[in-house]
Inverse folding.
């Protein structure tokens, strides 16, 4: 029996009812979530528009666990401070949308937040090489970002295991978060490849038996 009890679950509120965000955050936070994943989209880097720092500030009081903010926006350096002021504990910026990645990572760390770098499915991993020693986590996208409820891209676990290899080769303490299409069928693939944190939106909020059962199901799918 594998011990995967250290694996963290981060429900994505992109699949919540937007009119009741606070309640949906509390629901996950009280049902065993390890953090809440907040997808910020600007309608430019990705087609959808979601929320800004005011929303993060509003939902913060509904959560007993850290907020993991995923910035799918261009020029994230202009918004990083506002999201940290609003209560973000981790800020993930995309390698594809950030002109001066090292500077932006320093900006995040200087404010005391954790810094993550997100990478799209088609982006080669070489872009992580120089930034890896400066970050707390890599966010591997297993779908093309922009929408909830998409299918996990087959073979994403190959990329996850190569990130894992890069991290251990460099002897670093960097966590791997995987985002997109994670459910009770795919979670195991990501975890076996080296994922430490699983983001799940639709698999948690659209589950017919509710958020608590969905989180338990995800956990049991990786525990045996
Ligand atoms: C995709 C977002 C994900 C999304 C995941 O652009 O970054 O966080 O909400 O949703 P599911 O788990 O439904 O694929
Ligand atoms: Zn996300």
């Amino acid at each position: 029996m594998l011990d995967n009890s250290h694996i963290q679950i981060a429900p994505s509120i992109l699949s919540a009812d937007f009119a009741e965000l606070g309640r949906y955050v509390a629901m996950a936070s009280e049902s065993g979530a390890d953090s809440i994943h907040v997808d910020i989209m600007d309608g430019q880097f990705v087609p959808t528009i979601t929320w800004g720092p005011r929303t993060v500030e509003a939902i913060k009081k509904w959560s007993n666990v850290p907020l993991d903010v995923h910035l799918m926006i261009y020029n994230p350096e202009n918004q990083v401070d506002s999201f940290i002021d609003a209560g973000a504990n981790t800020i993930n910026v995309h390698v594809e949308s950030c002109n001066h990645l090292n500077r932006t990572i320093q900006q995040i760390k200087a404010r005391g937040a954790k810094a993550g770098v997100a990478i799209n499915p088609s982006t080669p991993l070489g872009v992580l090489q120089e930034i890896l020693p400066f970050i707390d986590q890599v966010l591997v996208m297993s779908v093309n970002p922009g929408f909830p409820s998409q299918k996990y891209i087959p073979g994403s676990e190959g990329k996850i295991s190569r990130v894992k290899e890069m991290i251990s080769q460099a002897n670093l303490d960097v966590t791997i978060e995987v985002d997109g299409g994670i459910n009770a069928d795919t979670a195991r693939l990501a975890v076996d490849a080296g994922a430490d944190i699983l983001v799940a939106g639709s698999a948690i909020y659209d589950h017919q038996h509710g958020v608590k059962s969905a989180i338990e199901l995800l956990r049991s799918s990786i525990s045996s």
Q: What stands out?
A: The radius of gyration is 16 Å. The longest strand covers residues 36-41.
